[in-house]
Amino acid sequence: MTCAFLRAIRYTEKLYRSSGKRLFLPYLVLNKACLKTETSLKWGLQEPKKTVRSGCNIGVTRKTIWTQGPSSLKAKEDSSKQVSVHRSQSGETAISTSQKVKEAGRDFTYLIVVLIGIGVTGGLFYTIFKELFSSFSPNKIYGKALEKCRSHPEVVSVFGEPVKGYGEVTRRGRRQHVSFIEYVKDGLKYLRVKFYIEGSEPGKQGTVHVEVKENPGSGECDFQYIFVEVESYPRRTIVVEDNRFQDN
Amino acid sequence: MEEYAREPCPWRIVDDCGGAFTMGTIGGGIFQAIKGFRNSPVGVNHRLRGSLTAIKTRAPQLGGSFAVWGGLFSMIDCSMVQVRGKEDPWNSITSGALTGAILAARNGPVAMVGSAAMGGILLALIEGAGILLTRFASAQFLNGESSVC
């Protein structure tokens, strides 16, 4: 039994060295090798039992054969390694207070950096959501006013059909930001937006002034006025909407 | 003056592409110089040669991929402006998402969706930063003029 066992071990060592595969293989290979040696040596009726037993045996002693090399030497090395590991673990706790402080300091600075990053990112996300999704932001007012201008027949007749809108020219040439002023009067929030429109008629440009008052009841915004100033020589002003004197 | 008299949009594509290439090449050059310096054998001559080789091989690659990103983003942005008819932060965010999706098209639809999400979020952050900056910059001018007519 033991010589078959040792033979199985040598067989797996050979296989392991030749293939150089992962360490999980020896278990399966060992099982197969054991089966092979058992059947080759003893053709009796007791084969299944012995294979099972040797399989269990091999499972128990797996740890000592886990690495390369002869098993007996390896067992001694492993035990010595285990002793040395225990020693180093007990020795580490005595000297690691300064290391612990250093590591805690490092972790703390990392935590601060992460928190700052999260704060900045959260602030940016909040800004962009408020700008794009809340109904009282200049961007939404710009969109709604542009829609109203586009559907107004006089504006369409002056400027030509696809009316384009844009905001202030920034340094890079992108014109995404509309200029606006927000103020509070009598406890209500007002918002004034100014943007430019252009149509397909060449050379005709217009400036649109919009003022919006926040309705305290529904939280929505009421358009106070929408004026379109056409930049031709006799300056024309097209009134798209004028509700300034309605609620007074 | 004269450069704002014409429409920014078609010319902006070339502008953005070149700007992105420059950013990628310079940034990649610095990065690869340090990396090549560190991954070379000991000795200043070896290290300098190693960093020069790293710059010569890798920096144009990074510049090229940045240029592709920038050029594609600007093209989609200008197309959206033309189609929608208004210039909006929404254009930038959607352009970023579409650019990310197109550039990950080789890796299948799931990777496209992930890359689109990343591109959109990145552009949303950049737009948010731009909005904050313009508001702070204009808020400084408005300090004396807050009277309402």
UniProtKB/TrEMBL annotation, chain A:
InterPro entries: Tim21, Tim21_IMS_sf. GO terms for biological process: mitochondrial respiratory chain complex I assembly; mitochondrial respiratory chain complex IV assembly; protein import into mitochondrial matrix. Its main location: mitochondrion. GO terms for cellular component: TIM23 mitochondrial import inner membrane translocase complex. Gene3D superfamilies: Mitochondrial import inner membrane translocase subunit Tim21. The chain crosses the membrane at residues 108-129. PANTHER family: MITOCHONDRIAL IMPORT INNER MEMBRANE TRANSLOCASE SUBUNIT TIM21 (PTHR13032:SF6). Component of the TIM23 complex. Component of the MITRAC (mitochondrial translation regulation assembly intermediate of cytochrome c oxidase complex) complex, the core components of this complex being COA3/MITRAC12 and COX14. Interacts with COA3 and MT-CO1/COX1. Participates in the translocation of transit peptide-containing proteins across the mitochondrial inner membrane. Also required for assembly of mitochondrial respiratory chain complex I and complex IV as component of the MITRAC (mitochondrial translation regulation assembly intermediate of cytochrome c oxidase complex) complex. Probably shuttles between the presequence translocase and respiratory-chain assembly intermediates in a process that promotes incorporation of early nuclear-encoded subunits into these complexes. Essential component of the TIM23 complex, a complex that mediates the translocation of transit peptide-containing proteins across the mitochondrial inner membrane. This is Mitochondrial import inner membrane translocase subunit Tim21. The lineage of its organism: Eukaryota, Metazoa, Chordata, Craniata, Vertebrata. The gene is TIMM21.
TrEMBL record, chain B:
GO terms for molecular function: protein transmembrane transporter activity. It is a multi-pass membrane protein. Keywords: Membrane, Mitochondrion, Mitochondrion inner membrane, Transmembrane, Transmembrane helix. One of its GO terms (cellular component) is TIM23 mitochondrial import inner membrane translocase complex. It comes from the Eukaryota. Its main location: mitochondrion. Pfam families: Tim17. One of its GO terms (biological process) is protein import into mitochondrial matrix. It is found in: Mitochondrion inner membrane. Belongs to the Tim17/Tim22/Tim23 family. PANTHER family: MITOCHONDRIAL IMPORT INNER MEMBRANE TRANSLOCASE SUBUNIT TIM-17, MITOCHONDRIAL IMPORT INNER MEMBRANE TRANSLOCASE SUBUNIT TIM17-A. Essential component of the TIM23 complex, a complex that mediates the translocation of transit peptide-containing proteins across the mitochondrial inner membrane. This is Mitochondrial import inner membrane translocase subunit Tim17-A isoform X2.
